[in-house]
Amino acid sequence: MKITRDEVVHVAKLARLNLDEEAIELYTRQLGDILTYMDTLNRVDTKDVPPTSHAIFINNAFREDEVKASVPVERALANAPQSEDGSFVVPKVIG
């Protein structure tokens, strides 16, 4: 698939990018190369290849959740600049 200079300019305008002539030519060439490669990949026969989410099999590296005791409120608030009634006091953010 070929991408035109006008298409690159149009997309840049939609993205509110100010591109100079050198950048437009560079991106036109690079995007054209990418689309040509995608055409090559689309011609590969994948009929007997099962769908996968990763190129290699991976295991979840996370540990199992364990219920543990919470940090006492006094300890959680010990370094707070300001607290009140067991809660952090923070500046008002929304009007």
Architecture overview:
The chain has 95 residues and is mainly α. It has a domain at 5-42: Histone, subunit A (Orthogonal Bundle). 38% of the residues lie in helices and 4% in strands. It contains 3 helices and 2 strands. It has helices spanning 5-14, 21-42, 73-76, and strands at residues 83-84, 87-88. Strands 1-2 form a two-stranded antiparallel sheet. Helix 1 packs across helix 2. It is flat, with a radius of gyration of 27 Å. It starts with a helix and ends in a 7-residue tail after the last strand. The mean pLDDT is 92.
CATH architecture designation of the domain at 5-42: Orthogonal Bundle
Instruction: Give the N-to-C terminal Cα separation.
Output: 51 Å
Order of SSEs, N→C? HHHEE
Alpha carbon gyration radius = 27 Å
Q: What is the approximate shape?
A: flat
Number of helices, where a helix is a run of at least 4 consecutive DSSP H or I residues: 3
The portion of residues assigned to helices is 25-40%
Specify the structural class.
Answer: mainly alpha
Annotated CATH topology of the domain at 5-42: Histone, subunit A
| Mean pLDDT figure | 92
Q: If strands are numbered along the chain, what order do they take across the biggest sheet?
A: 1-2
Characterize the largest beta sheet: strand count, sense, and whether it forms a barrel: 2 strands, antiparallel
Strand segment count: 2
The CATH first-level class of the domain at 5-42 comes to Mainly Alpha
Q: Which blocks of ≥5 consecutive residues have pLDDT under 50?
A: none
Estimate what percentage of residues fall within beta strands.
under 5%
